[in-house]
Fold:
Amino acid sequence: MVIGMKKDVKRIITKDFEQGLVDEMISKLIPKFHASRDVVILTDGKDYKGVITEKQLTRTQLDISKTKAQKLMRHAPKINPKTTLGEAARLMLESNLFHLPVIENKKVVGVVKANDLLYEAIDIIEDYQAEEVMTKKIKTITPDTTLKTALITFREQGISRLPIEENGELVGIIGLHDIVKNALKPTEKSGMGRTTQTTTALDVPVSSLMRKEIIQAKKTATPREVFELMNKHDVSSIIIESKGIITRKDLLETLSYELNKQEKEVFIQISSKLEEINKDIILEEVKHFVVKNKSLGPGYIYIHVQKHKETHRKLPLLHLRLRVRCKDSFDITSEGYGEESTIKQALRKLKTLLLKSDYKIRPDEVMDYLDLDSH
Structure:
Protein backbone atom coordinates (compact mmCIF):
# COMPACT_ATOMS: atom_id res chain seq x y z
CA MET A 1 0.00 0.00 0.00
CA VAL A 2 1.58 3.28 -1.09
CA ILE A 3 0.27 6.64 0.04
CA GLY A 4 1.99 9.65 -1.48
CA MET A 5 2.81 12.88 0.23
CA LYS A 6 0.17 14.62 -1.91
CA LYS A 7 -2.75 12.86 -0.20
CA ASP A 8 -4.60 15.39 1.95
CA VAL A 9 -5.97 15.25 5.49
CA LYS A 10 -9.64 15.71 4.53
CA ARG A 11 -10.75 12.16 5.36
CA ILE A 12 -9.10 12.13 8.83
CA ILE A 13 -10.51 15.43 10.12
CA THR A 14 -12.53 14.80 13.28
CA LYS A 15 -14.90 16.92 15.35
CA ASP A 16 -13.95 14.88 18.44
CA PHE A 17 -12.07 17.56 20.37
CA GLU A 18 -12.49 19.75 23.44
CA GLN A 19 -12.95 23.52 23.43
CA GLY A 20 -12.49 26.14 26.11
CA LEU A 21 -12.54 29.91 26.47
CA VAL A 22 -9.40 32.03 26.68
CA ASP A 23 -10.66 33.74 29.86
CA GLU A 24 -11.49 30.49 31.70
CA MET A 25 -9.44 29.44 34.72
CA ILE A 26 -7.10 26.49 34.13
CA SER A 27 -8.84 24.57 36.93
CA LYS A 28 -12.05 24.61 34.84
CA LEU A 29 -10.25 23.24 31.80
CA ILE A 30 -8.44 20.29 33.43
CA PRO A 31 -11.47 17.92 33.21
CA LYS A 32 -11.47 18.48 29.45
CA PHE A 33 -7.95 17.06 29.21
CA HIS A 34 -9.26 13.82 30.71
CA ALA A 35 -11.17 13.30 27.48
CA SER A 36 -8.90 14.83 24.84
CA ARG A 37 -5.66 13.61 26.47
CA ASP A 38 -3.45 16.20 24.81
CA VAL A 39 -4.88 19.57 23.88
CA VAL A 40 -7.85 21.91 24.34
CA ILE A 41 -8.78 24.34 21.53
CA LEU A 42 -9.31 27.90 22.79
CA THR A 43 -11.74 30.47 21.40
CA ASP A 44 -13.08 33.84 22.52
CA GLY A 45 -16.58 32.36 22.33
CA LYS A 46 -16.66 32.86 18.59
CA ASP A 47 -13.31 32.74 16.78
CA TYR A 48 -10.30 30.45 17.17
CA LYS A 49 -7.49 31.91 19.30
CA GLY A 50 -5.01 29.13 20.13
CA VAL A 51 -4.45 25.92 22.08
CA ILE A 52 -3.34 24.80 25.50
CA THR A 53 -1.56 21.48 26.07
CA GLU A 54 -1.10 19.14 29.00
CA LYS A 55 2.61 19.91 29.18
CA GLN A 56 1.81 23.55 29.89
CA LEU A 57 -0.05 22.50 33.03
CA THR A 58 3.10 21.06 34.62
CA ARG A 59 4.70 24.29 35.79
CA THR A 60 5.45 23.57 39.44
CA GLN A 61 4.59 27.13 40.60
CA LEU A 62 1.34 27.33 38.63
CA ASP A 63 -1.79 28.12 40.65
CA ILE A 64 -4.44 26.61 38.38
CA SER A 65 -7.28 28.18 40.34
CA LYS A 66 -6.01 31.70 39.59
CA THR A 67 -4.44 31.36 36.16
CA LYS A 68 -6.46 32.03 33.02
CA ALA A 69 -6.05 29.89 29.92
CA GLN A 70 -4.89 32.89 27.90
CA LYS A 71 -1.68 33.10 29.95
CA LEU A 72 -0.61 29.61 28.82
CA MET A 73 -2.13 29.72 25.33
CA ARG A 74 0.02 28.63 22.40
CA HIS A 75 -0.43 29.43 18.72
CA ALA A 76 -0.68 26.16 16.81
CA PRO A 77 -0.03 25.75 13.09
CA LYS A 78 -3.35 26.13 11.29
CA ILE A 79 -4.17 23.68 8.54
CA ASN A 80 -7.05 23.22 6.11
CA PRO A 81 -8.68 20.18 4.48
CA LYS A 82 -6.26 20.36 1.54
CA THR A 83 -3.13 20.17 3.73
CA THR A 84 -1.16 17.05 2.79
CA LEU A 85 -0.41 14.21 5.20
CA GLY A 86 3.28 14.92 4.87
CA GLU A 87 2.87 18.59 5.71
CA ALA A 88 0.60 17.80 8.68
CA ALA A 89 3.16 15.33 10.07
CA ARG A 90 5.96 17.86 9.61
CA LEU A 91 3.99 20.63 11.36
CA MET A 92 3.11 18.35 14.29
CA LEU A 93 6.76 17.54 14.90
CA GLU A 94 7.97 21.10 14.35
CA SER A 95 5.46 22.56 16.82
CA ASN A 96 5.50 19.55 19.17
CA LEU A 97 1.69 19.49 18.96
CA PHE A 98 -0.19 16.35 18.01
CA HIS A 99 -3.66 17.83 17.49
CA LEU A 100 -3.74 20.43 14.71
CA PRO A 101 -6.79 22.70 14.36
CA VAL A 102 -8.43 22.80 10.95
CA ILE A 103 -9.49 26.41 10.33
CA GLU A 104 -11.92 27.82 7.80
CA ASN A 105 -13.05 31.47 8.00
CA LYS A 106 -11.44 31.80 11.47
CA LYS A 107 -13.63 28.96 12.76
CA VAL A 108 -12.44 25.57 14.01
CA VAL A 109 -14.15 23.00 11.80
CA GLY A 110 -12.25 20.04 13.25
CA VAL A 111 -8.84 18.74 14.22
CA VAL A 112 -6.33 16.30 12.78
CA LYS A 113 -4.86 13.97 15.39
CA ALA A 114 -1.50 12.23 15.18
CA ASN A 115 -3.13 8.92 16.01
CA ASP A 116 -5.52 9.21 13.05
CA LEU A 117 -2.70 10.28 10.75
CA LEU A 118 -0.69 7.21 11.80
CA TYR A 119 -3.69 4.94 11.29
CA GLU A 120 -4.15 6.35 7.78
CA ALA A 121 -0.53 6.06 6.66
CA ILE A 122 1.34 3.61 8.93
CA ASP A 123 1.84 1.11 6.10
CA ILE A 124 4.25 3.55 4.43
CA ILE A 125 6.85 2.49 7.01
CA GLU A 126 6.03 -1.23 6.91
CA ASP A 127 9.62 -2.12 5.94
CA TYR A 128 11.01 -0.76 9.23
CA GLN A 129 11.54 -2.84 12.37
CA ALA A 130 10.96 -1.64 15.94
CA GLU A 131 14.68 -1.49 16.72
CA GLU A 132 15.16 1.02 13.88
CA VAL A 133 12.48 3.34 15.25
CA MET A 134 12.96 3.04 19.03
CA THR A 135 14.80 5.42 21.32
CA LYS A 136 17.64 3.36 22.74
CA LYS A 137 18.60 5.38 25.79
CA ILE A 138 15.68 5.01 28.19
CA LYS A 139 15.46 7.60 30.95
CA THR A 140 14.11 5.84 34.06
CA ILE A 141 13.08 6.79 37.59
CA THR A 142 12.47 4.75 40.77
CA PRO A 143 9.14 3.99 42.46
CA ASP A 144 9.87 6.45 45.29
CA THR A 145 10.49 9.39 42.94
CA THR A 146 7.87 12.05 43.63
CA LEU A 147 5.32 13.14 41.06
CA LYS A 148 6.79 16.66 41.26
CA THR A 149 10.25 15.35 40.34
CA ALA A 150 8.73 13.33 37.50
CA LEU A 151 7.05 16.48 36.13
CA ILE A 152 10.36 18.36 36.27
CA THR A 153 12.02 15.49 34.37
CA PHE A 154 9.26 15.56 31.74
CA ARG A 155 9.86 19.27 31.17
CA GLU A 156 13.67 19.13 31.21
CA GLN A 157 13.93 16.11 28.93
CA GLY A 158 11.12 17.08 26.56
CA ILE A 159 9.36 13.73 27.09
CA SER A 160 5.94 12.69 28.35
CA ARG A 161 6.44 9.23 29.88
CA LEU A 162 8.97 7.58 32.16
CA PRO A 163 9.62 3.86 32.77
CA ILE A 164 10.03 3.03 36.46
CA GLU A 165 12.89 0.76 37.44
CA GLU A 166 13.68 -1.01 40.71
CA ASN A 167 16.74 -3.20 41.30
CA GLY A 168 17.47 -3.27 37.58
CA GLU A 169 13.94 -4.41 36.64
CA LEU A 170 11.14 -2.42 34.98
CA VAL A 171 8.21 -2.37 37.39
CA GLY A 172 5.93 0.23 35.82
CA ILE A 173 5.55 3.32 33.67
CA ILE A 174 4.02 6.74 34.27
CA GLY A 175 2.89 9.32 31.74
CA LEU A 176 2.24 13.03 31.87
CA HIS A 177 -1.46 12.36 31.30
CA ASP A 178 -1.63 10.14 34.41
CA ILE A 179 -0.42 13.02 36.57
CA VAL A 180 -2.60 15.70 34.93
CA LYS A 181 -5.68 13.51 35.26
CA ASN A 182 -5.16 12.26 38.80
CA ALA A 183 -2.93 14.68 40.70
CA LEU A 184 -3.27 18.26 39.45
CA LYS A 185 -5.73 20.08 41.69
CA PRO A 186 -6.39 23.71 42.64
CA THR A 187 -4.23 25.08 45.46
CA GLU A 188 -5.97 24.50 48.78
CA LYS A 189 -6.83 27.43 51.03
CA SER A 190 -6.82 27.63 54.81
CA GLY A 191 -9.83 28.88 56.79
CA MET A 192 -8.36 32.41 56.78
CA GLY A 193 -8.15 32.46 53.00
CA ARG A 194 -4.37 31.91 52.95
CA THR A 195 -2.66 29.27 50.85
CA THR A 196 -1.69 26.23 52.90
CA GLN A 197 1.89 24.97 52.79
CA THR A 198 1.05 21.36 53.62
CA THR A 199 1.90 18.31 51.49
CA THR A 200 0.28 18.41 48.06
CA ALA A 201 -0.72 15.61 45.71
CA LEU A 202 2.56 16.07 43.82
CA ASP A 203 4.64 15.09 46.85
CA VAL A 204 3.55 11.45 46.70
CA PRO A 205 5.70 8.79 44.98
CA VAL A 206 5.09 7.83 41.37
CA SER A 207 4.30 4.29 42.55
CA SER A 208 0.88 5.64 43.59
CA LEU A 209 -0.09 6.37 39.96
CA MET A 210 2.19 4.22 37.80
CA ARG A 211 0.86 1.60 35.42
CA LYS A 212 2.26 -1.72 36.57
CA GLU A 213 1.57 -3.52 33.31
CA ILE A 214 4.58 -3.18 31.01
CA ILE A 215 3.53 -3.58 27.38
CA GLN A 216 6.46 -4.89 25.35
CA ALA A 217 7.18 -5.82 21.75
CA LYS A 218 9.99 -7.63 19.98
CA LYS A 219 12.70 -5.61 18.28
CA THR A 220 11.66 -7.22 14.97
CA ALA A 221 8.04 -6.03 15.31
CA THR A 222 6.71 -3.81 12.52
CA PRO A 223 5.55 -0.24 13.19
CA ARG A 224 1.96 -1.36 12.56
CA GLU A 225 2.26 -4.12 15.17
CA VAL A 226 3.63 -1.62 17.69
CA PHE A 227 0.92 0.90 16.83
CA GLU A 228 -1.83 -1.72 17.20
CA LEU A 229 -0.44 -2.66 20.63
CA MET A 230 -0.65 1.00 21.67
CA ASN A 231 -4.29 1.22 20.64
CA LYS A 232 -5.24 -2.17 22.09
CA HIS A 233 -3.88 -1.32 25.53
CA ASP A 234 -4.66 2.43 25.37
CA VAL A 235 -1.01 3.43 25.94
CA SER A 236 1.20 5.89 24.08
CA SER A 237 4.48 4.00 24.37
CA ILE A 238 5.76 0.45 24.02
CA ILE A 239 8.92 -0.99 25.59
CA ILE A 240 11.08 -2.91 23.11
CA GLU A 241 12.61 -5.95 24.85
CA SER A 242 13.67 -3.70 27.76
CA LYS A 243 16.28 -2.16 25.44
CA GLY A 244 14.35 0.79 24.06
CA ILE A 245 11.03 2.59 23.90
CA ILE A 246 8.76 3.60 21.02
CA THR A 247 6.25 6.41 21.40
CA ARG A 248 3.68 7.72 18.95
CA LYS A 249 6.08 10.59 18.33
CA ASP A 250 8.80 8.12 17.28
CA LEU A 251 6.42 6.52 14.79
CA LEU A 252 5.38 9.96 13.52
CA GLU A 253 9.03 10.96 13.00
CA THR A 254 9.67 7.91 10.83
CA LEU A 255 6.45 8.45 8.92
CA SER A 256 7.20 12.14 8.38
CA TYR A 257 10.59 11.24 6.95
CA GLU A 258 9.08 8.81 4.46
CA LEU A 259 6.38 11.31 3.45
CA ASN A 260 8.77 14.22 3.04
CA LYS A 261 12.12 12.67 2.10
CA GLN A 262 14.07 13.40 -1.02
CA GLU A 263 16.26 10.84 -2.73
CA LYS A 264 19.66 10.31 -1.05
CA GLU A 265 19.26 13.24 1.35
CA VAL A 266 19.16 13.68 5.10
CA PHE A 267 15.84 15.14 6.24
CA ILE A 268 16.38 17.59 9.14
CA GLN A 269 13.66 18.97 11.39
CA ILE A 270 13.74 21.05 14.57
CA SER A 271 10.98 20.76 17.16
CA SER A 272 10.47 23.42 19.82
CA LYS A 273 7.49 25.30 21.18
CA LEU A 274 9.80 28.22 22.03
CA GLU A 275 9.42 31.06 19.55
CA GLU A 276 12.55 32.80 20.89
CA ILE A 277 14.80 29.87 19.97
CA ASN A 278 16.90 30.71 16.90
CA LYS A 279 16.27 27.57 14.86
CA ASP A 280 18.33 28.90 11.94
CA ILE A 281 21.57 28.68 13.96
CA ILE A 282 20.87 25.04 14.87
CA LEU A 283 19.76 24.15 11.36
CA GLU A 284 22.88 25.64 9.74
CA GLU A 285 25.20 23.73 12.10
CA VAL A 286 23.45 20.43 11.34
CA LYS A 287 23.39 21.10 7.59
CA HIS A 288 27.12 21.83 7.68
CA PHE A 289 27.73 18.57 9.54
CA VAL A 290 25.69 16.61 6.99
CA VAL A 291 27.49 18.21 4.02
CA LYS A 292 30.90 17.42 5.54
CA ASN A 293 29.86 13.85 6.31
CA LYS A 294 28.06 12.61 3.23
CA SER A 295 28.29 8.96 4.31
CA LEU A 296 25.80 9.74 7.09
CA GLY A 297 22.66 9.60 4.94
CA PRO A 298 20.12 8.98 3.68
CA GLY A 299 17.80 9.25 6.65
CA TYR A 300 16.54 11.83 9.09
CA ILE A 301 17.68 13.92 12.03
CA TYR A 302 15.17 15.33 14.50
CA ILE A 303 16.21 17.95 17.05
CA HIS A 304 14.07 18.84 20.07
CA VAL A 305 15.00 21.90 22.16
CA GLN A 306 13.94 22.80 25.71
CA LYS A 307 14.88 25.95 27.64
CA HIS A 308 15.75 26.20 31.34
CA LYS A 309 15.32 29.36 33.42
CA GLU A 310 19.08 29.65 34.07
CA THR A 311 21.07 32.07 31.88
CA HIS A 312 24.75 32.99 31.45
CA ARG A 313 25.74 36.27 29.78
CA LYS A 314 22.15 36.58 28.62
CA LEU A 315 22.29 33.18 26.89
CA PRO A 316 19.63 30.67 28.04
CA LEU A 317 20.57 27.20 29.27
CA LEU A 318 19.22 24.80 26.63
CA HIS A 319 18.56 21.06 26.69
CA LEU A 320 18.75 19.46 23.25
CA ARG A 321 17.83 15.97 22.05
CA LEU A 322 19.25 14.72 18.76
CA ARG A 323 17.62 11.67 17.14
CA VAL A 324 19.57 10.34 14.18
CA ARG A 325 18.03 7.64 11.99
CA CYS A 326 20.29 7.26 8.97
CA LYS A 327 22.52 4.25 8.19
CA ASP A 328 22.68 3.82 11.95
CA SER A 329 20.61 5.09 14.88
CA PHE A 330 21.83 7.44 17.60
CA ASP A 331 20.06 9.21 20.47
CA ILE A 332 22.05 12.10 21.88
CA THR A 333 21.40 14.78 24.50
CA SER A 334 23.38 17.91 25.29
CA GLU A 335 23.13 21.02 27.45
CA GLY A 336 24.72 24.38 26.90
CA TYR A 337 24.24 28.13 26.90
CA GLY A 338 22.82 29.34 23.61
CA GLU A 339 21.96 27.53 20.41
CA GLU A 340 25.43 27.36 18.83
CA SER A 341 27.21 25.92 21.86
CA THR A 342 24.50 23.34 22.55
CA ILE A 343 24.18 21.97 19.01
CA LYS A 344 27.97 21.85 18.54
CA GLN A 345 28.25 19.79 21.71
CA ALA A 346 25.63 17.36 20.39
CA LEU A 347 27.38 17.07 17.03
CA ARG A 348 30.72 16.40 18.73
CA LYS A 349 29.05 13.53 20.57
CA LEU A 350 27.66 12.25 17.28
CA LYS A 351 31.13 12.29 15.71
CA THR A 352 32.54 10.34 18.63
CA LEU A 353 29.79 7.72 18.38
CA LEU A 354 30.37 7.38 14.66
CA LEU A 355 34.06 6.75 15.28
CA LYS A 356 33.26 4.05 17.84
CA SER A 357 30.73 2.31 15.63
CA ASP A 358 31.28 0.15 12.58
CA TYR A 359 30.22 3.10 10.46
CA LYS A 360 32.18 3.34 7.20
CA ILE A 361 33.80 6.76 7.13
CA ARG A 362 35.04 8.03 3.79
CA PRO A 363 38.78 8.90 3.62
CA ASP A 364 38.03 12.55 2.84
CA GLU A 365 36.03 12.80 6.08
CA VAL A 366 38.78 11.55 8.42
CA MET A 367 40.37 14.95 9.12
CA ASP A 368 36.99 16.41 9.96
CA TYR A 369 36.48 13.67 12.57
CA LEU A 370 39.88 14.33 14.09
CA ASP A 371 39.10 18.01 14.51
CA LEU A 372 35.87 17.86 16.50
CA ASP A 373 35.50 21.65 16.52
CA SER A 374 36.14 22.14 12.82
CA HIS A 375 33.72 24.31 10.89
Summary: The chain is about 30% helix and 25% strand.
